[in-house]
Specification:
2 domains; ten-stranded antiparallel beta sheet; alpha+beta
């Protein structure tokens, strides 16, 4: 579908939702409790079990297959001798199909199924965000300061609310007890805390004179570095208006060692991928 066609669809959905003039993503978030949202929720419920979530005889918030079914914890029958699960590969991580969801949104809109159309547009946005997160994760270094990437720790999560809840996480470890981790996030709470430090213009000391945190710079970006005897070093670097990168180092010998590890990362490229200004 052409970009122009997609933008036309989003604009039409915004009119139906009766929201104020603002960006589409903010409109969707601000109208959580209106009738359009309620209809979207019903559509989502239908996708999972064909009935409303709170209807008698259906599982609770855990959804189908969750704990708390009939006949005792973890079981689906009425007896107490049900076998416990011993295997299974779990769920497959499958990001939403952007093109398919855009096509579904157009079909739903033409049928005046506005809640379903809104849901499909949101899923398309989530798919784009997850793709961005995975691309950034792939671009991160495979090793840092002699520590190798822990593949099982790689994680990309998103709330799906338009680049307001994207989180990318990776850890690096060795065979002993040294660890380095990086978290890239759109997090207003974290940003507010770091910006408060940056505008305070000082540093904090304990009564014994040991410095807890101070302002610094990483590749030209203003940052806050902290040290705690229990958790080690933490370096917080705001990039752009809404994104932040947090580096954490356990059992790093010195502050320069921690800074050198953080310098391994291409902050400008990460900022660009996130679309930050």
């Amino acid at each position: 579908m052409k970009v122009k066609k997609f933008l036309t669809l989003v604009a039409a959905l915004s009119v139906v939702a009766l929201v104020s003039e603002a960006q589409v993503l903010n409109r969707l978030k601000q109208k959580v409790e209106n009738k359009t949202e309620q209809k979207a929720g019903e559509e989502i419920d239908k996708l999972f079990n064909g009935k409303k979530k709170d209807q008698p005889g259906q599982p609770g918030q855990g959804g189908a297959g969750g704990a708390g079914g009939q006949g005792g914890s973890g079981g689906s029958g009425s007896g107490g001798n049900n076998p416990s699960n011993q295997g299974g590969a779990g769920l497959i991580s499958t990001p939403p199909d952007v093109k398919q969801n855009l096509a579904d949104a157009e079909v739903a809109y033409k049928k005046s199924s506005y809640g379903e159309a809104r849901y499909s547009v949101q899923q398309a946005m989530l798919g784009v965000e997850m793709e961005i997160g995975n691309q950034i994760l792939k671009s991160l270094p495979e090793s840092v300061s002699g520590l190798n990437r822990d593949a099982e720790s790689d994680q990309v999560t998103s709330t799906g609310w338009g680049w307001a809840g994207l989180t990318i996480h990776r850890e690096y470890t060795d065979s002993k007890d040294k660890q380095f981790s990086v978290t890239i996030a759109n997090n207003s709470v974290m940003m507010a805390g770091v910006n408060a430090y940056l505008t305070s213009g000082g540093y904090a000391q304990q009564t014994n004179g040991a410095q807890n945190w101070k302002q610094t710079k990483l590749k030209g970006y203003r940052a806050i570095i902290e040290f705690n005897e229990g958790s080690g070093y933490k370096l917080s670097v705001p990039i752009g208006q809404s994104s932040i990168i947090v580096f954490e180092g356990i059992n790093f010998a010195t502050e320069p060692d921690m800074m050198k590890a953080a310098e391994t990362f291409n902050l400008d490229e990460i900022k660009k991928e996130l679309g930050e200004q």
